[in-house]
Sequence to fold (592 residues):
Amino acid sequence: MSIQVFGLPVSRGVAIGRAVLVASSRVDVAHYFVIPDRVEHEILRLRDARDGVAHELQALKKELPAEAPTELAALLDVHLMLIHDESLTGATKAWIVDRHYNAEWALSAQLEVLARQFDEMDDPYLRERKADIEQVVERLLRELAGSAAGASPASPAAAKAMRDFAGEDPLVLVANDVAPADMMQFKRSIFTGFVTDVGGRTSHTAIVARSMDIPAVVGAREASRLIRQDDWLVIDGDVGVVIVNPSPIVLEEYRFRQRQSELERARLDRLRHTPAVTLDGELIELHANIELPADAAIALEAGAVGVGLFRSEFLFMNRGGALPGEDEQFEAYRDAVLALGGLPVTIRTVDVGADKPLERMSQQELRHEHGLNPALGLRAIRWSLSEPGMFRQQLRAILRASAFGKVRVLVPMVAQLAEVRLIFEALARARQQLDDAGRAYGHVEVGAMVEVPAAALLIGRFLRDFDFVSIGTNDLIQYTLAVDRADESVAHLYDPWHPAVLGLIHQTISAASAMGRGVSVCGEMAGDTAFTELLLAMGLRSFSMHPARIASVKQRVLRADTRPLKARLAAVLESDDPEAAMRNLGGDRATH
Fold:
């Protein structure tokens, strides 16, 4: 029977495919596909984890004091029985063999199946035994974490393996939520759409889905509970609806819409290498946001004239807690610089914390991040300054890469004038260390991200030291409006059209332009065509976005005349409803 699930539309378009569920767990679980050659290795990891947990439980049972309650020994016996139960480990093995899931994903997927079976039992006592299964699985997952270093992440070969078992059916991902590290693993896989229970319009999942230019619906609440493995799904990313097992008529209608979207993409593709010049002759720089060195080639192919944001933190993820060394970072940055062939590369120093914690962060830091307010905690430049050795190591790697091309350093979440002094002291120390070691490096411009209102309000003072600024609109909106951008319960309050937000953006662009400093926007607004004319009217001449958005924004730029836009700007900024004012003056309504 067909059902509809409603959520927030965060990435336009239509996706049709079979559901692949990523089960939720109280233990963080890595999700990736394994190539056929690694299937036996994953089964061995599962078997070793089972044996390790069984040994641990047997040891606990032997160490029980004589006065311990008999129920405790009985509970350990139950857990030992579950460890060897075919419905748990045997079925988990089937997920690995049939689906090419890694062992952790396979185990959490089987937990989801068993948990649903227990939830449907009539006997209250039996229903409560679900907790025993969960506890056993958590022990197994912790045991598997110790062997994760030898695991193989997603790769083209892994995607091919996934296609082999799936046949020709397209696949869509369904999850309670998808962690940033998992999104990086899935980024180049074969999913054609995403559905999550939680998240807002600018949650990390939403941002990556838009950057991949694939349809997505987030905040769908019960999606992962209502949708079963292999259900046929239609994701309508325009209105935020997921149709489960649609009728043939509905399916054909959405397939027609898919074909229309593909034709529009083909038309835009012709603009890739056309210079972005407005009707009145203003040259606009359209840069790309990238996460890994391999993305540089994609940026060039999309027509980018440089990299406006290299998110270096993704080099630090999925490493089991180990940080990349200076040489490894240098090679990654150098590869991106060389791939750009002389075009500028802006490398952001590591931006971790909040929704992107590192595995190596201490338990105290993680409890603080997840238990209090992670957006206001130890993140971005605050974390880098708290780890001065790591920070100088990254700066040295970036400086060394600058010997191979034009490199700029971008520092995230600067809010304090004292931080500015510490940043430049760290840079001076990094240069001195390279001089002492006889290593070559080039000149780099140093910029700050404007992500908190304090930075926008002190922009004049910041620009006495920084060469340029880049406006991170996602966090700027979040901090200005005090709205958690990943929380679907307040997603309706996250408003990029808010007059205060637009006022801060305009103030920043105007101040930077007046002081002869570079200014760009690298947040979601840069790639949203609903804001292109407004940002041009404010005087913005440098945009940075995911490569998939460049052609659409370029089309808007080519059709724009900045002279009448500037004349309209005051009316929009002074309006109580800037979105309506922009629409009345000829601009389009924002759709996400």
User: Anything to note?
Assistant: Residues 149-156, 362-370 have pLDDT under 50 and may be disordered. The longest strand covers residues 14-22.
